[in-house]
Write a structure and sequence with these properties.
Layout (H helix, E strand, L loop, with lengths): L5 H17 L6 E6 L5 E6 H28 L10 H4 L5 H35 L5 H27 L5
Length: 164
């Protein structure tokens, strides 16, 4: 695995460790959906919960790692960035791909952390249903991810805004 993808491997391993750690601690049914007030509204079998969790994490790893690989093989006309002609000129193309790859990796990392945190909050709510901390944690995690996404988009647009 190239070093630039190491964080994906670490986060995938974290999701697997999370699954192995909590598997024996949870009941056979896991409350997995909640209404706006934070009250349980649906559940699923424990194996399905963890299978979906690991599948989502694995798919994100494949998509974000694959996106960077595909990006380098795609013709420049298919890459949608501001001032594309300037940034994908032959003498700047490799540096631009590096910047795009770094941006993809940062968003991929944030997405994976968000998924792992969400699973952790759902698991904790199942282990300690009387606690309101996971519900508050959900709002904090979701808000942080939205703020990160907005900042990421602004940074991305500014990164390629004009020719230097």
């Amino acid at each position: 695995m190239p070093q630039r993808y190491m964080v994906y491997g670490v986060l995938l391993a974290a999701a697997v460790i999370q699954t192995l750690w909590y598997w024996p601690r949870l009941l056979d049914r896991v409350v997995s959906t909640y209404d706006a007030a934070g009250d349980p509204s649906g559940s699923m079998a424990k194996p399905l919960f963890f299978a979906l969790h690991l599948l989502m994490v694995a798919v994100c790893v494949v998509v974000f790692a694959g996106l960077e690989v595909i990006l380098r093989k795609a013709p420049p006309s298919l890459i949608n960035i501001p001032n594309r002609e300037y940034w994908l000129a032959p003498d700047r193309r490799e540096a631009t791909y590096g910047r795009l790859g770094e941006s993809i990796r940062s968003y991929g990392t944030a997405t994976l952390v968000f998924l792992i945190v969400l699973a952790e909050l759902v698991i904790r709510q199942n282990l300690w249903p009387e606690s309101s901390v996971p519900t508050i944690g959900l709002w904090i995690a979701a808000s942080a991810f939205v703020v990160f996404t907005v900042a990421w988009v602004i940074r991305f647009l500014l990164m390629f805004r004009v020719e230097p």
